[in-house]
Amino acid sequence: MCLLAALTGCGALGDVAEEVGKAAGEMADPAVITEDAPFKGSPSEGFADGIAGVEIPEAKAVGRFSAKDVRSAYQVSRRLLEAAYLDEKSLLGGKPEAYARLLDPEQRTFFLKNLDHEDVEKDTRGWVFSFAPGTTELVGDVVKVKGKLSAAPGKDQDVGEMLVVTYEARFVYAVRPAGEKNPVVRVMAYIKARHEFWRDEPGGRLRHWEGEEIDRWSAGTECDSPDRFHRPDFRFEGGDGPAQDAYSDEKAAPIKEGECGTVEEI
């Protein structure tokens, strides 16, 4: 699902952000996003820089999985999130090699076989967050991140007892059109899903799998995408659905089929 940002929260073209009211000593419009301070005035300004925003909680034993297993699972989940949402090559539409390397060999084969598949329903590009190649540049070297991990027992009919790590995170990017200085806008990616961990036999290595997706959406991106790539809403077209708070953890108002949601601020 995509949510477009309302103009008041998404910023404005840099060339109209000239020093209006400078003679009167007025401050610049706080809604304007600048290259020097792309997160200023946004709730994301208080987020940590990069993967440091996904904290690893204290590890405690879960079922038959020891605290050491849980700690290892947390670290794997964090690395997968970093590769899926922060790797620059993948973000700019390149091959997600860093992410693929972290997958279980069996799942890696499936992921690479279906990467950028012509059938959008089979395309695994959506497993990572990527802007359409040649459309977008990152502004600066900081992505603002806030996320959390939790562990719980699980069970699968094929592998038996599992350790399930639920992860939830927001990633906020400052971007501009490729090859252009303006406009600078913010885009958010939200994900809540599970990583599953298990052993094929007692004492064996701890395997992991990209598990069930609970919720996923992006804000500040175009709604009508022909593929699994994301395209920032550089034209400030806005959506036609009810305005929502992209930073709220409360359940959002439902969006009707064919409707493009709107967020108040990114």
From TrEMBL:
Which residues lie in Basic and acidic residues bias regions? Answer: 225-238, 248-259
Q: Where is this region: Disordered?
A: 220-266
Protein known as: Lipoprotein
Q: Which organism is it from?
A: Planomonospora alba
